[in-house]
């Protein structure tokens, strides 16, 4: 790494809350990659419709935070979040960590634009008192994530002592290996005293039962938390036979959303306790169970809960099996397993969304289930995680016959049992998986690749291919399909290989096909071997594409990831489409880290632009959001963002984007959004009779408008 120079920070008067800041006499070295000086003394200049000056130098600030595995991101327009950055080069020098801690302290003390902070061990170690003293004082900080501080007990205890002092915190996420007693006590005190905390997320591998009780007692006395998400083995909450936890769930009047993710799928007692407690709760409207294996008793109990509960609007069982995933004993007919679920659908008129698997039911049971669904008008959406592959075609036909197909979403990509049947008869399925590891894998691959060009309904495809199946015919068919398709949005290619020998023909054919493809938006490549030529083709694709905005590139060797970053970084600043890139995180030398930072910095810029543009579409009418919309209005990632914000489909999101772009095409609208005028443009008559701006007819103005952007107009200082 080149030697960094020490420089004094730029001088500038700032009105301070305190007589003296710890950063006053600290001398920062130049940034690690560009060798730039940081103007850390700049005050916060954010206001309605105006960005803080820090946004102009965000790259420099991130060069300092990068060294402790963090970066500043704009997750909401005009607001900064300090978030964890996977793969960043964490510096070993104490001074680098000191600089990052000082900058965080400065942001907390003087910048109202900072609204969210992730604390990791690298920035907190040796500076926990400096940071924890300032954290509760920040009136703008609404979200805090505490991440793996277990290795530094002093830091963890400092955070614990600061927690009860927060007056404005709205969301807290604690992601620790072990919840230590002092931390649990600090968290409990916060839960009792807070008037602002609404979301609490607890993620841990270990917790002692007595420490779990400390948190539970805090939750019992809390009156603000509306969303509780727990990811751990639930045993620590079951002290005293789970009476306290059961009472909390059944009697709480504040909680609206409960999310429980289990590290141990067979937590039958925990699940039974939770479900029974929900029978008495009248305020929780959303429950999500993730990673559980429900036995017969709990499966029926959930159905009974849905029959009786009148507050639940959303109930999701994600990666959760029913009836212990036992084989179906009855090949035909309707068994007692499905009856409780049919009763639940028939009686419940408040549930709007349900996620569950159906592979534990035979085809006749599924049909009976969907017949009842047809008469339930309140249930708007059922996300089916799994069906038996042999039943998919028949069930798809039945869904169309009963008129409920629009309300049933098949959530996972479906593995072909018989591609000829599934592709031709299941027109409403859009997500597929071709897996050649199955007994008929080779034939399925060839049949599917021949049929796919005529299947306009296939929008998401996973190819899990063993090396032996990639003969010349298969490669040619894959090439033809990927080159010609105009509807495929997501592609995942996974190669299973017993050797590490590069398959130049397959990799180059794949890259060539991808280069000419104009529809793929998300691409994931895993397990292949690429030479430099193939990687250059991928880099060219990323640079030229106006549709591909998300890439996961995980070949067998990290050297290929390194080479991709090296080839991408020189011109990546011209790319306004790429929003995410995941590569092997082991990139050893400093030059590669510098190039990785360059690519990541552009992704951060693009994400900021898409975020601003999406909020402009949603109604935030300020100049910097309008300027972003002009730059990225054709980015498919913007469509996805608007879909998420507005809860609409792709067509409606695209329509809203077009409408918002037209909203400032006229002269007065453009000048108003740009901040040039408050209402409309008025020009005083010239004595010489020369043409004025307002004299332009509409066609002339629209021609001028093609060459004039919001960003071309200087911001009023």
Automatic annotation (TrEMBL):
This is Nlr family card domain protein. Residues 1-22 are annotated as: Disordered. PANTHER family: F-BOX DOMAIN-CONTAINING PROTEIN-RELATED (PTHR24114:SF2), LEUCINE RICH REPEAT FAMILY PROTEIN (PTHR24114). InterPro entries: LRR-containing (IPR052394), LRR_dom_sf (IPR032675).
């Amino acid at each position: 790494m080149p030697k960094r120079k020490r420089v004094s920070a730029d001088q500038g008067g700032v009105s301070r809350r305190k007589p003296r800041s710890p950063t006053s006499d600290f001398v920062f070295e130049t940034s690690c990659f560009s060798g730039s000086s940081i103007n850390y003394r700049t005050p916060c200049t954010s206001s309605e419709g105006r960005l803080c000056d820090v946004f102009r130098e965000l790259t420099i600030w991130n060069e300092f935070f990068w060294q402790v595995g963090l970066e500043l991101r704009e997750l909401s327009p005009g607001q900064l979040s300090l978030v964890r950055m996977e793969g960043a080069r964490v510096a070993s020098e104490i001074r680098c960590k000191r600089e990052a801690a000082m900058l965080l302290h400065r942001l907390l003390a003087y910048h109202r634009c900072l609204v969210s902070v992730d604390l990791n061990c690298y920035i907190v170690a040796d500076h926990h008192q400096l940071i924890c003293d300032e954290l509760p004082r920040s009136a703008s900080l609404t979200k805090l994530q505490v991440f793996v501080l277990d290795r530094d007990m002093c830091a963890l205890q400092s955070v614990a002592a600061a927690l009860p002092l927060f007056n404005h915190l709205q969301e807290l996420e604690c992601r620790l290996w072990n919840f230590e007693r002092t931390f649990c006590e600090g968290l409990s005190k916060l839960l009792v005293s807070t008037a602002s905390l609404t979301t609490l997320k607890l993620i841990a591998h270990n917790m002692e039962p007595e420490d779990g009780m400390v948190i539970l007692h805090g939750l019992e006395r809390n009156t603000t938390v509306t969303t509780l998400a727990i990811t751990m083995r639930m045993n620590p909450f079951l002290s005293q036979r789970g009476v306290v936890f059961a009472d909390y769930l059944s009697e709480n009047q504040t909680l609206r959303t409960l999310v429980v993710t289990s590290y141990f799928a067979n937590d039958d007692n925990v699940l039974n306790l939770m479900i029974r407690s929900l029978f008495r709760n009248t305020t929780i409207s959303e429950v999500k169970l993730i990673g559980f294996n429900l036995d017969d008793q709990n499966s029926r109990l959930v159905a009974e809960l849905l029959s009786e509960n009148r507050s639940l609007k959303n109930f999701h069982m994600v990666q959760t099996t029913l009836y212990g995933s036992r084989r179906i004993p009855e090949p035909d007919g309707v068994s007692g397993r499905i009856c409780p679920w049919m009763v639940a659908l028939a009686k419940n008129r408040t549930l709007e969304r349900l996620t569950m698997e159906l592979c534990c039911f035979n085809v006749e049971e599924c049909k009976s289930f969907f017949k009842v669904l047809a008469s339930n008008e309140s249930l708007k959406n059922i996300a089916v995680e799994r069906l038996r592959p042999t039943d998919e075609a028949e069930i798809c036909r039945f869904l169309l016959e009963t008129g409920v197909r629009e309300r049933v979403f098949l959530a996972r990509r479906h593995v072909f049992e018989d591609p000829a049947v599934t592709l031709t008869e299941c027109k409403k399925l859009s997500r597929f998986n071709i897996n050649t590891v199955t007994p008929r894998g080779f034939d399925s691959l060839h049949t599917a690749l021949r049929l796919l060009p005529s299947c306009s309904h296939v929008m998401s495809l996973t190819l899990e291919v063993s090396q032996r199946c990639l003969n010349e015919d298969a490669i040619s068919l894959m090439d033809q399909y990927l080159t010609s398709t105009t509807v495929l949005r997501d592609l995942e290619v996974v190669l299973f290989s017993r050797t590490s020998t590069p398959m130049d023909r397959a990799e180059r054919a794949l890259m060539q096909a991808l280069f000419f493809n104009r529809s793929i938006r998300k691409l994931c490549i895993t397990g292949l071997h690429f030479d430099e030529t193939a990687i250059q083709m991928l880099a060219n694709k990323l640079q030229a594409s106006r549709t591909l905005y998300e890439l996961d590139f995980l070949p067998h060797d990290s050297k290929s990831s390194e080479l991709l970053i090296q080839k991408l970084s020189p011109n990546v600043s011209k790319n306004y489409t790429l929003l995410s890139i995941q590569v092997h995180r082991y990139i050893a030398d400093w030059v590669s880290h510098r190039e990785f930072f360059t690519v990541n910095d552009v992704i951060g810029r693009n994400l900021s632009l898409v975020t601003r543009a999406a909020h402009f579409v949603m109604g935030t009418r300020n100049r910097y959001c309008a300027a972003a919309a002009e730059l990225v209005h054709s980015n498919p990632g913007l469509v996805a963002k608007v879909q998420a914000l507005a809860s609409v489909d792709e067509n409606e999101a695209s329509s809203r984007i077009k409408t918002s772009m037209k909203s400032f095409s006229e002269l007065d609208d453009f000048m108003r959004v740009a901040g040039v005028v408050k209402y409309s443009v008025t020009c005083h008559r010239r004595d010489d009779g020369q043409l004025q701006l307002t004299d332009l007819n509409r066609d002339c103005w629209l021609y001028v408008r093609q060459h004039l952007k919001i960003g071309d107009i200087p911001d009023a200082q």
